[in-house]
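Researcher: Before we compare anything, I want clean individual predictions. No alignment, no superposition, just each chain on its own. First chain goes here; please echo the sequence and then give the structure tokens.
Model: Echoing the first chain and its structure:
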Amino acid sequence: MTLKSITAAKMKALDQSAIKRYGIPSLILMENAGRGIADLAQRLVREKARILVVCGKGNNGGDGFVSARHLANRGFKVKVFLLGDPSDLASDAKINYRIVKKMGIPIIQKSLPRLKMLLKQASLVIDGIFGVGLTRPVEGIYYDAIALINSSRKPVLAIDIPSGLDSDRGKALGIAVRAKMTGTLAVAKRGLVIGNGPYYAGKIKVIDISIPRKLISMYTT
């Protein structure tokens, strides 16, 4: 069966339709995404394994925070690495960051030497750096972080799409995370199945985040 896919623009419209037409709060969509990622992570590692969640400042990072707290509640040894300042986090991501912090889950910020050390200790890396909104080449600390993740050779579970991959063209924007598995949200993104997408995405699993099927069918091909 061919995997249905969607462009970034259509995915954004689908999200907004779910929020506005059906009244599904964006926080619920994020909660379902993060819990779905936690479910996939649990299949990939042994009990009480060390899991490193690498988060950017957008909603992809917010999904990462949600997955971190679910995994911590299930007994895994979870640490979060935040690429940026908490003050720059998107609103829903900031809410989940604060919950993670209050739970006492370790959050490490910006230090690339610390990231390198954390990668050595981890059994699994969850990639929550960039989502489908990325359109320009990866630069700076983000480029360096992705390079470290790839060079660590640790198994990676990408949230929605491997960070750095163009979600419409399946092309690395300078650099992209190479994942063992991608938990894509609601519908597979076009870039996962064309171009070099399959190389970076690994095994693709579609996560139900509670968007009605009838609505999804209006936006997919």
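Researcher: Okay. Second chain, same rules.
Model: Second chain and its structure:
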Amino acid sequence: MVPINKQNFFEFLRFCTVGIGNTAVDFIVFFILTHAGLPLLLAQGIAYSAGAINSFYFNRRWTFRDAGNTVFWEAVRFGTVNGLALLVSAALLFICRDSLRLTLWSSKLAATGAGTAINYIGSRCWVFKEKQVRGDLCEN
């Protein structure tokens, strides 16, 4: 469990703020592409990727306050976490829309929630782990 302290609280607020921007980019691109007739999962992949690029930059620089030069391996780890989140969100989107027959909006919200959870835990515990304090949820 993440200790509730001032640093963790404000870090999570920054993560959520960046997430709102990422989600806006994701949703706007997704709905433009689906409105233009792109297949659902292709639109999801492109839209998610657009949000992920925004996410990496702002979470690295602002949320987790990483000003170092170790961008390459962080980008590889970030891509891995986001790839997993994309797979889970695409599967959930497909299940909600095609199997459960939920609206596109509801399906996209469910998929986004799952992706957000995977992203925060992965970013905090693996991508930007070196920047974390001891005693948090990522400690073994």
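Researcher: What stands out in the second chain?
Model: The chain has a mean pLDDT of 85. Additionally, The two ends are 12 Å apart (CA to CA).
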